[in-house]
Amino acid sequence: MSVSSGSSRKSYTALVDTMRPAKPVLRNVLRAFWVGGVVCFIGECVEEFFVHAFHFSEKTAGNPTVAIMILLAVILTGFGVYDKISQYAGAGTAVPVTGFANSIASAALEHKTEGYVVGVGTNMFKIAGPVIVFGVVAAFVVSFVVYAYIRLHG
Amino acid sequence: MGTLAIFLAAFFVGGLICAIGQLLFDLTKLTPAHVMVIFVVAGAILEGLGWYDPLIRFAGAGATVPITSFGSSLVHGAIEETRHYGWLGLVTGIFEVTSAGISAAILFGFLSTLVFRARG
């Protein structure tokens, strides 16, 4: 028996598309907006805390803030809370840096049973890896262009 | 700008960036990994154009907490380092600013496996 032909597969996917319930896009976007906003609001609170309690400048407070946000996200991931919030908030928890930390922690936990080197070490960046790879490549290209521009015009 | 205004700006700008992410999730066939990559690359380009720093001054954590700031910080570190080391700075400076984030994510992620186990 042959695998389904191209045309019938196409009509099948078209049929599935008509049957599939419409995505509640507006609802999802509103959820992502308010949860993402709250995550950034919490980030701002942490940042102000570092500025006032430890006399960081507005500029240097960014680094410890990101570290604290990551720590919070990893703890919430460990307790299984982050994934529950993610199901509700979608991009609201995926786009902040906490989502990056969540992807690392959950991949690490998921593969813990395979051992620390082969399981945790190998899989930790399974999801976060592309962000770092393309971030670095893009950053190199952009800063190369900017620096070349500075050298030519500065 | 008053202190209260920066909290509001953080909420609205951060929320807006996440809302754009959700639109990409729902209205395109891109996977979450693709969307994250797009955000990081967009952050790098905005930084290169000099537009990300004003956004950080306006919205604080609303601009530094979303993943776009990762791309922006990578470029920021590289360009800063070229002041001291010229072309070589492009390579040596890339992780200058983002070191805290990457290190924290690896460290806490690893430590979490010592304490927690997978759920669900």
**Beginning-to-end CA distance, first to last residue of chain A:** 69 Å
Shape of chain B: globular
Based on helices, strands and strand pairing, what is the structural class of chain A? mainly alpha
Low-confidence stretches of chain A: none
Strand content of chain B is: under 5%
Mean pLDDT, all residues of chain B: 93
Category from helices, strands and their pairing of chain B: mainly alpha
Helix fraction of chain B? over 70%
Main sheet record of chain B: none
Strand fraction of chain A: under 5%
The quaternary state of the protein chains shown equals heterodimer
Look at the structure and give the mean pLDDT of chain A: 91
Unreliable runs of chain B: none
Give me the strand/helix succession of chain A. HHHHHHHH
C-alpha-based Rg of chain A, rounded: 22 Å
Pfam family, one (chain A): SpoVAC_SpoVAEB
Protein name (chain A): Stage V sporulation protein AC
Organism (chain A): Ferroacidibacillus organovorans
InterPro entries (chain A): Spore_V_AC, SpoVA
Explain briefly what this protein structure is:
The complex is a heterodimer of chains A (154) and B (120). Helix content of chain A is 78%, strand content 0%.
Question: Your description of this structure?
Answer:
- The complex is a heterodimer of chains A (about 150) and B (about 120).
- Chain A is an all-alpha fold.
- Chain A has a domain at about 20-125.
- Chain A has helices at about 5-20, 25-55, 60-80, 80-90, 90-95, 95-110, 115-125, 130-154.
- Chain A is extended, with a radius of gyration of 22 Å.
- The model of chain A has no long low-confidence stretch (mean pLDDT about 90).
- Chain B is mostly helical and about 120 residues long.
- Chain B has one domain.
- Chain B has helices at about 5-25, 30-50, 50-60, 60-65, 70-85, 90, 100-115.
- The longest helix of chain B has 25 residues, at about 5-25.
- Chain B is globular, with a radius of gyration of 17 Å.
- The model of chain B has no long low-confidence stretch (mean pLDDT about 95).
- Chains A and B meet through α2, α3, α5, α6 and α8 of A and α1, α2, α4, α5 and α6 of B.
